[in-house]
Amino acid sequence: MTVTEQIDNPYLPEPARIVRHFDMIDDHRFFWIRHRDEERAMSFKYKPGQFIMLSLPGVGESPFSISSTPSRPGILELGIRKTGKLTDVLFQKKDNDLIYIRGPYGNGFQINQMKGKDILIVAGGLGVIPLRSILYYVLDNRDQFGRLYFMYGARSPSEFLFANEFFQLKDREDIECFYTVDQDSTGDWTEYVGVVTRLFENLPKLEAKNVNAVVCGPPIMYKFVINELLELKIPKNQIQMTLERRMKCGIGKCGHCVHDHIYTCIDGPVFNYFQVTQFKELI
Ligand SMILES: Cc1cc2nc3c(=O)[nH]c(=O)nc-3n(C[C@H](O)[C@H](O)[C@H](O)COP(=O)(O)OP(=O)(O)OC[C@H]3O[C@@H](n4cnc5c(N)ncnc54)[C@H](O)[C@@H]3O)c2cc1C
Ligand code: FES
Asked: Do residues 153 and 123 make contact, with C-beta atoms less than 8 angstroms apart?
């Protein structure tokens, strides 16, 4: 046992391997990672909407949403944009290289509240990375939820993430998918063109009280999507959203993520819209 293991160190990361990776679009890479310890890999429990802290020794540590679903244990999937110090070095790593992770952290989605309800998932841009976890969780536990609607908007066809798998979902009868891009200059795009809120025109009539919505996307998107959801009369506490704030520790110690008295890392990153209305400028 090492000295750091003997003291109860909440920051102690665990080694994990990059099992496989591929480039989704420019500067956006998808990673399959697995705890080096086999038992830990299989027993690692998390909820859709939670995140891990990923570190590289001598480089740094940053939070990343878990994009896989706990209903498929063993592998953690991450979708990562190359933005700076840590991600620059991470993108130089190869399959089988070691990285370090700790977590899972954050509250995750209120799955129990969603059970038995129709689910409306609204994603914009990179926001689809955390929402992909709840999407596959609902698909893997299909009998526990009502109807499933999935809306996703990207800026252009070349920025549309997970295109192959999301287009395959369109063949399934237990989900209705609506995809859009803000602009298409390719002429090959066969789905909608326009901002994500335009997709609401295509929704069938919903029984609002029976709907749970989850939303994640760029800051500008929230206001407009929430207006649409409120117009549909979905109750405020049935609209969940995942919010990003600068984080350092991920466990409520450093104060980097505090907004009013809210610790985004432990009270969030998932909030319902009723909670959001209680805090100034949370979105
Ligand atoms: C809960 C949570 C989940 C996240 N999930 C993902 C994910 O799934 N995929 C992903 O690619 N990224 C995700 N991020 C963002 C990611 O943690 C940051 O981009 C991180 O800073 C990258 O580390 P870096 O060292 O490469 O970049 P840095 O060198 O730290 O920063 C690069 C640039 O990004 C800016 N920046 C850093 N952090 C943030 C932030 N939180 N918000 C806005 N700007 C920031 C910096 O000012 C700088 O301009 C998440 C963040 C949070 C809080
Ligand atoms: S990230 Fe340190 S308190 Fe939230």
From this structure: yes
Q: Are residues 191 and 230 in the same domain?
A: yes
Q: Please write the tens of the pLDDT for every residue from 262-273.
A: 999 999 999 999
Indicate if ligand 1 lies below 6 Å from the C-beta of 80. yes
For residue 60, give the ligand 1 atom closest to its CA: 25
Point out the domain boundary residue: 105, 136, 167: 105
Is pTM, for the whole model, over 0.90?
yes
CA dihedral 15, 16, 22, 25 (to 10 degrees): -60
209 lines ligand 1 (CB under 6 A): no
- Domain CATH code at residue 83: 2.40.30.10
C-beta 269 within 6 A of ligand 1: yes
When pLDDT is averaged across residues 240-262 and rounded to a whole number, the result is 91
